[in-house]
Amino acid sequence: MTPALMLLLVVLLVVLAFEYINGFHDTANAIATVVSTKVLTPRQALFLASSMNLLGAFTGTAVAKTIQSGLIDDKIVTITSLTILCAMLGAITWNLITWWFGIPSSSSHALVGGLIGAAMASAKDPWNWHVLIWSRPKIDPKTGNQVMEGLFHKVVIPMITSPLLGFSIGFILMGFLFWLIRNWRPHTINRTFGFMQILSAGYMGLGHGKADAQKTMGVIALTLYGATAAGELDHLPEWLHFLKITDKHAAIPFWIIMTCAVVMAAGTWAGGWRIIKTLGHKMVRMQPVHGFAAETTAATILFVTGEMGMPVSTTHTITTSIMGVGAAKRWNSVKWSLVERIVWAWIFTIPASAIIAWLLHKLFASF
Hints:
Blueprint: H1 3-25, H2 27-36, H3 42-56, H4 62-69, H5 83-100, H6 107-122, E1 136-139, E2 146-149, H7 151-180, H8 186-229, H9 254-270, H10 273-282, H11 288-307, H12 314-329, H13 336-365
Antiparallel strand pairs: 1-2
Helix pairs in contact: 1-5, 1-8, 1-9, 2-3, 2-8, 2-10, 3-8, 3-9, 4-8, 5-6, 5-13, 6-13, 7-11, 7-12, 8-9, 8-11, 11-12
């Protein structure tokens, strides 16, 4: 086995470790509300979420293509450059820190931050910002129309708008449901929306799989394309030629989609109970109708942005949807002191994971 192949296997294992951690770190996104309202037991909710995560991973690859070729210069992504390895380690480190403290931070933004920090560290000149794709036009192969891609359009704008949409739509939907059920008996409300919340939890699990599994697909495709273009996979044995990706515009290989789907589903099954407690119990006290509104809001946003190729944070989306639903119930029913902690974690996620990835790259490169 050549050194390049050994290092490639290490990189792929680390990427899949991130996918697994992403699964249990973000499990709360899909099941926190359905567990807190006691519609499903934790194990029933985990089975539903992991199953729907698995299916959701097969519903498109637009986000994967954004990660593969729309955020950083793929010319610096080789096996020996350690870019992907350090990016993933930076994201994993930040995810584990926030998981330990039960703070629902964004795995998506940790991944983006890791890529930014590692890409800048990989550049020959210090603080070489041109390795980051900030904004550029691109022709949509489906429609033939010109669209914009890059960090500004695919990360920064959605990072601001998706939480605002989550809060606003959750608030409006909950207000509509309050009007709809104003004359219903409590028993009828809980029985009806208990059933409806099972559907919305499945919908949320599907959206989570669509949004988050694709990001790791894009990282693997980016790694293999960069290594192929650099000639690092030229001497692979014939039975490993499936690892080569010669066209970055080609469809994501099925084996990558399947691998990421299974690993994320396994991670989801492992569960992330610390964050589940924060989202499902500490921030807002919810009944099934509230959980249905929050999950429906968040999942819809994830599906729309996923089709647009935007790596939106499932954590930001479901958390702000819960905030909006809680605020519609009663403004002071939301524990805003906890919200403040969560928002600070969101603000620090990209720079923190970028700094960790940058430092790791400099450390490894010194050996």
